[in-house]
Specification:
This protein is mainly α. It has a domain of 127 residues: Periplasmic binding protein-like II (D-Maltodextrin-Binding Protein, domain 2). A three-stranded mixed β-sheet has the order 4-8-10. Strand 1 and strand 2 form a beta hairpin. The longest helix is centred in the last third of the chain and has 28 residues.
């Protein structure tokens, strides 16, 4: 399961604690702080994080991009200029995001790009909403989401994300906005980083590292003995396994002490960005909230307006704040 699911799982009390393994392998020292937060419950390690994908990436076909005669996009305006230029030249500009999780990932990137990382953290993580300011920022974000969706290419309308990655590698579409797993897909299809495709941080999110980390959890009194479960957790965080997994998956190792020798440049950048962001407290989780997924997908399906979607998002996370406070009160009472 992904980290936020492990943390919020209503069966967390039934998960095997992994504190012993964590101490043996110094998890506190080598796992980024934000991922630690999604791996613990009431101060105890309840999951073994084993990889770390980053979502805020742009993937560009290098040959098509060179035809635009434009610099790599660093800002929102740069990005729109690139997409406009592609359309002018008749180049399919942007992979269509056909699923709610991809659409919501883009929404999250746009919120960081529009309002900044601290606003993202305040609304989605710390639940310290400033209603007037945050509603304004959410509205701008939804409007930008609609604006960028107008560049979705007709030839990817029915493509899965990995099928679209192949089209990008073949030069049939310019750009894909998706996580670091795209790197693995492109490599497996025979395309080479820096030769066939480019990997860039989504404009105006440079310095932020929006992550999606996969975790193993182990249930107490499960069919396997606790000793064997802890041995598996130990194997998942083994340095050689971490390195091998990163080589084939495109994810950064969840440990920050793994050598990047032999990694392609996109994976090296992913690892470097994670290490730098960890030192600046700039590693932030993607939001795995099914209600937010529905708000975003309904908006792109023209079922709601930007104003309505902003109000729904604000109401959702305001309610989460209320629920968290209530749950904290119950926990204190216990």
């Amino acid at each position: 399961m992904i980290g936020s699911s492990a943390f919020a799982h209503n069966s967390a009390e039934h998960f095997l604690q992994l504190d012993q393994v964590a101490e043996e392998q110094s998890w506190e020292d080598v796992i980024p702080y934000a991922i630690q937060a999604t791996s613990k419950h009431k101060g105890h390690w309840i999951s073994a994080p084993f990889n770390n994908h980053s979502t805020n990436w742009l993937w560009l076909n290098k040959t098509l991009f060179s035809q635009l005669d434009l610099p790599e996009p660093e800002t929102w305006n740069d990005l729109i200029a690139v997409l406009d230029r592609a359309k002018q030249l008749g180049i399919p500009a942007l992979v269509t995001l056909n699923s709610d999780w991809q659409q919501t990932q883009l929404f999250e990137m746009l919120l960081v790009a529009t309002a900044g990382m601290e606003s993202y953290r305040r609304i989605f993580i710390d639940n310290k909403i400033i209603e007037t300011e945050d509603k304004r920022q959410l509205l701008t974000t939804f409007l930008r989401l609609k604006q960028i969706s107008r560049y979705f290419s007709d030839n990817t309308l029915k493509s899965t994300w990995n099928e679209a990655s192949d089209l990008l590698g073949q030069g049939k579409v310019l750009m894909q906005i998706n996580g670091s797993w795209v790197n693995s897909e492109l490599k497996n299809l025979g395309w080479k980083a820096d030769e066939d495709y480019l990997c860039l941080r989504f404009p105006d999110t440079q310095g932020a590292y929006i992550f999606n980390s996969d975790h193993f959890v182990f249930f107490k009194n499960g069919p396997a003995a606790a000793k064997n479960q802890r041995q598996m957790a130990r194997a998942l965080l083994d340095k050689e396994f971490q390195r091998d997994l990163s080589m084939v998956s495109g994810a950064a190792p969840v440990r920050v002490d793994i050598s990047t020798k032999g990694f392609d440049n996109c994976t090296k950048k992913n690892v470097h960005d994670l290490r730098m962001a960890n030192m600046r407290n700039a590693v932030i989780p993607m939001i795995s909230n099914p209600k937010l997924l529905k708000i975003v997908s309904d908006y792109l399906a023209l079922k709601t307006t930007a104003e309505q979607a902003s109000e729904l998002t604000l109401a959702l996370f305001t309610q989460i704040t209320i629920d968290n406070k209530a749950n904290a009160g119950l926990s204190d009472a216990d």
